[in-house]
Every structure is written in structure tokens, then in C-alpha cells.
Specification:
Order of helices and strands: EEEEHH
Shape: flat
Structural class: mainly beta
Oligomer: single chain
Number of strands: 4
Largest sheet: 2 strands, antiparallel
Length: about 100
């Protein structure tokens, strides 16, 4: 994760800071593979502190914390095709829908 100041933000902008993160992926090996060939790697709860510790700089040790989620820990479900456009954002993108509901 990273906190950074939007370089396009005006000096008078009251909210110029952004919080961003990266999703690290691997080849999909479960039901997610029906939807997309990649799936996210995960960090076990017991390793959250080590992963998020900014003083932890050993890349090999951190890489070893990444695991493929066990079968059943990720659920594939229908969502709106609005997720296919990077300009769309918001919590509604992950709401489960029936295929008949997809109106974007």
C-alpha cells in the first residue's frame, strides 16, 4: 500500500492525498478460473503485521508470506458488467446480481 499526494491536485485541495494498493495475482486454480485466468494471492491473518510492517524490507521473506487461497475461500459470483470499465468505482461493483439485473 502507499499514501501519495495527487500531483494534479491544486495546492488548495482539501483532499489531495490518495491511498493505493496492489493486488498480487497468480494463475487461477479453482472456480475463479472459470471467470478469469488470474486470482489474487492472500496473506494469512497471522502474517498481517509482518506484511504491513514498513520496516520489514526482506523481499524474500515477504514473498514467502503470499499464499494461494485454499479451495472455498474465494467465491465466484455474478456481478454487473460495469466492473469491466476502469472508470466505474464504488461498492456496488461487488454486489451479487442475477444475469437479468445487469443494466450497468
Amino acid at each position: 500500500y502507499e499514501f501519495w499526494r495527487d500531483p494534479k491536485a491544486d495546492d488548495n485541495d482539501s483532499a489531495p492525498w490518495r491511498t493505493t494498493c496492489t493486488i498480487i495475482t497468480t494463475e487461477a486454480r479453482d472456480a475463479a478460473g472459470r471467470v478469469h485466468p488470474r486470482m489474487p494471492l492472500a496473506i494469512p491473518v497471522a502474517d498481517y503485521d509482518a506484511w504491513l510492517d514498513p520496516a520489514h524490507e526482506d523481499a524474500d521473506e515477504l514473498r514467502d508470506l503470499l499464499v494461494t487461497p485454499a479451495a472455498g475461500h474465494l467465491v465466484a459470483r455474478p456481478v454487473s458488467t460495469a466492473v469491466n470499465n476502469v472508470r466505474n468505482d464504488g461498492p456496488g461493483l461487488i454486489e451479487e446480481i442475477s444475469p437479468q439485473q445487469d443494466t450497468q
